[in-house]
Amino acid sequence: MTDAPLISVRGEAVLEAEPEIARLSVHVQSQESDRRTALDRLTERNRQCLDLVGSYGDAVEKVETGGVSIAPVLKYRRREGDVRGYRGTVWIKIAVTDFAVLGELVARLGDLERTYVNGPEWELRRDSEVYERAARQAAHEAVARARGYAEALGARLTGLVELSDEGVGRTPDAPVALAAAYGGRMDGAEEPEPIDLEPETQIVRAAVVARFTATAPDLEPR
């Protein structure tokens, strides 16, 4: 154990950055009186949705199926009854990196029959350099703050005892529903107008706690 004075500080950094990914959640549905017909309709609409997304090429980084369900729709909700029909749902998750086509893609997805679009959720990549930059700035802030305290006491820093990372993360935001369509576009109708979407600024926060050794302070009155 050292008898040298210790200075403990907390360093923080808050950065603003443009998002790198926009995530969309798309639910494609069918509802028919016959189970097989509901499944066939769902398969067809799912393929239409995937073909549309695939037509955007590298602008879409990833497409995933989040889940599929086929369930009976009963006539009575509070007790067992005759089956009125069957409802099918496919959940598709889409990651878009080219924001120039995002508004058009959202509008065209929302124009598909029995399709619900939720998003976008703006994000940074997990390995984005913004997180590293925020962590470095938080560490620099800790050193500067500790040095300022030491100078105020007539001392100087001599070493680092401990540096604890409190974490780096993005301030979360609630997703917003953008479009819903259950009728579908009539054959021969024009394509829908793109929706104007402005990327949401991402707020990245980082914090560290650091302990430094220092020379003996000069506590004589001045």
Task: Please give the CATH architecture of the largest domain.
Answer: 2-Layer Sandwich
Can you tell me the number of structural domains? 2
Query: What strand line-up does the widest sheet have?
Result: 3-4-2-5-7
Q: What share of the residues lie within helices?
A: 10-25%
What is the gyration radius calculated from CA atoms?
A: 28 Å
Query: Could you give a short account of the major beta sheet?
Result: 5 strands, antiparallel
| Structure summary, number of beta strands | 8
Mean pLDDT: 88
Spatial gap, N to C terminus: 32 Å
Order of helices and strands: EEHEEHEHEEE
The DSSP helix count reads 3
* Class derived from helix and strand content: alpha+beta
Identify the CATH class of the largest domain. Alpha Beta
Fill in the CATH topology of the largest domain: Alpha-Beta Plaits
Oligomer: single chain
In short:
With 222 residues, this protein is of the alpha+beta class.
Could you explain the architecture of this structure?
This protein has 222 residues and is α+β, with helices and mostly antiparallel strands. The protein has two domains: 1-19 and 127-174 and 198-216, Protein of unknown function (DUF541), domain 1 (Translation Initiation Factor IF3); 21-123, Alpha-Beta Plaits (2-Layer Sandwich). 24% of the residues lie in helices and 42% in strands. The protein has a five-stranded antiparallel beta sheet. A three-stranded antiparallel beta sheet has the order 1-8-6. A hairpin with an 8-residue loop joins strand 3 and strand 4 (83-96). The longest helix is centred in the middle third of the chain and has 24 residues, at 129-152. 22% of the residues are buried.
